[in-house]
Structure formats: structure tokens, C-alpha cells
Design a protein that fits this description.
Blueprint lengths: L8 E4 L3 H11 L1 E10 L1 H7 L5 E9 L5 E9 L20 E4 L3 H8 L11 E3 L3 E7 L5 E7 L2
């Protein structure tokens, strides 16, 4: 048995339009947006009465995809604290390689994208930073240098 690919990572958000705009500013493209509901959805996620909407965002030059999910019902549970620190157990972050870190950060500022710490130079190989994305998740950006 062989894993064929990592198909996608899903993020539950409280504002689907804002999340789409945020990830579009990074450079992802909206592949599809659709409602999800029914018995099969309830059985898959283990909740009753699921009514959600998903937006599938894809990397334009690759196979990576990000699923953004908004729950109409049942209402999504907020995380505590709302912006957990980077050492919180569970999904740590989503990282994207970008060709121009400064330009990407400039595009993200109108969408609430603010660097958590600093933009750093890692061993003269990458410029890296963490920032908050939709629903308080941490998004990392990396630009190869040299």
C-alpha cells in the first residue's frame, strides 16, 4: 500500500469569504465552492445535521490544496484562546513557499495578515515568518534566498 498524495488540509473558518480572500492574497486559486450536507456528511465527520460550505483553494503551480470549511450547523466551536500560541498541541501551522515574501506580506495586510514575531533569515537559505490567518491559525511563509 502506498500513499498517492496529500490531497488537502482543511481549516474550519468563521468567515468563508474573508478566508478565501486571505489565501487568494497568498497566491492560491479558488478551485471550487459548494454546500455540503446530508447523511453522508453526518456519517463522515461524526456530527448530526451538518450543513456546511467548503471552498477548495489550490496552489497554482502544484498539487497542494487547502479546504476552507464554514459550518452553518452545527455551529463551530471556538478555540481557547482565540489565537493559540505556536506551541499548542495539534495542527501547528500551514507553510507556503513564496517567491517574494515582502510582496506577499504587503498583499496580506489588508486581510489582517500581521507577522507574529519577525521576518528572519534562516542560515542564508530562507527568509521566514509566521503570521495569523483566518480563525487564528498560523500561516508560515518561506522565500528561498541566494
Amino acid at each position: 500500500m502506498t500513499v498517492l498524495r496529500l490531497d488537502n488540509v482543511a481549516i474550519v473558518v468563521d468567515d468563508l469569504d474573508a478566508a478565501i480572500a486571505f489565501f487568494a492574497a497568498i497566491g492560491l486559486e479558488l478551485e471550487d465552492r459548494q454546500p455540503i450536507e446530508g447523511v453522508w456528511a453526518d456519517q463522515t465527520v461524526g456530527l448530526d445535521g451538518v450543513r456546511s460550505e467548503i471552498a477548495m483553494m489550490r496552489v497554482s503551480e502544484g498539487q497542494g490544496r487547502l479546504e476552507l470549511t464554514y459550518y452553518h450547523a452545527p455551529t463551530a466551536s471556538p478555540t481557547e484562546p482565540a489565537a493559540p500560541p505556536p506551541n499548542t498541541l495539534g495542527l501547528h501551522r500551514v507553510m507556503f513557499a513564496v517567491d517574494d515574501l515582502d510582496d506577499t506580506l504587503e498583499r496580506l495586510r489588508p486581510h489582517g495578515g500581521e507577522v507574529i514575531g519577525e521576518v528572519v533569515d534562516y542560515a542564508n537559505v530562507y527568509r521566514l515568518c509566521y503570521l495569523r490567518g483566518p480563525a487564528g491559525i498560523i500561516v508560515a511563509l518561506a522565500q528561498r534566498v541566494g
